[in-house]
Design a protein that fits this description.
The chain is an all-alpha fold. It has one domain: Ferritin (Up-down Bundle), CATH 1.20.1260.10. It has five helices and no strands. It is elongated. The relative contact order is 0.16. It binds fe (iii) ion (3 copies). The site of one fe (iii) ion has 5 residues, from helix 1 and helix 3. The site of one fe (iii) ion (FE) has 5 residues, from helix 1 and helix 3.
Length: about 170
């Protein structure tokens, strides 16, 4: 098999991987929302599910803007990260503990996405794909904001768990 020898194809490959990752995530986020107890966290997963569906449309626009078609690839990393999220649901007792495990799994997902979108933005910049860079930059901002919201949710849940433990003493 001949090797990829140009940056256009690298961009196409990386963006196709992200598109597959987002597609896998639409199913996973539904399960995570259903498994979360804290109403703010549940709502957060539901909001990010809508954003994720929108991100798939944005990726299609980015491909169209450079007249490329996505490749059929499986993001193996996202497959693994989602598997870890499922373990959080299966292995931890419902409530603050499982919510924390879900947040940890979700933040690993967001960090993978942040790395991925940061990279395709840099490639788009290098290739002069201005429109694609703008579209993908807006997804990058959503992933960063989601990561921050998850950090806040973790602090609130930990506080709730701590005050619950104190009350139980
Ligand atoms: Fe995403
Ligand atoms: Fe991947
Ligand atoms: Fe995300």
């Amino acid at each position: 098999m001949s090797k990829i020898d140009n940056f256009e194809d690298l961009f196409c490959h990386e963006l196709s991987d992200l598109m597959n990752a987002e597609t896998q995530l639409t199913k996973a986020l539904k399960d995570m929302a259903a498994a979360a107890s804290d109403p703010t966290l549940k709502k957060g997963f539901e909001t990010h599910l809508k954003e994720t569906e929108d991100q798939i449309e944005k990726i299609k626009k980015a491909f169209a803007s450079v007249e490329m078609e996505p490749e059929k690839v499986t993001c193996e990393a996202m497959k693994g990260l989602i598997k870890e999220g499922k373990e959080a649901i299966d292995e931890f007792e419902e409530g603050p503990l499982r919510d924390c495990a879900l947040i940890i799994a979700a933040q690993k997902v967001e960090h993978y996405e942040i790395a991925g979108y940061g990279s395709v933005c840099a490639l788009a910049e290098k290739l002069g794909f201005d429109e694609a860079k703008e579209i993908l930059g807006s997804i990058l901002d959503q992933e960063k904001a989601t990561d921050e919201k998850l950090t806040e949710a973790a602090m609130n849940i930990n506080e709730d768990a701590a005050s619950f433990a104190e009350a139980a003493e």
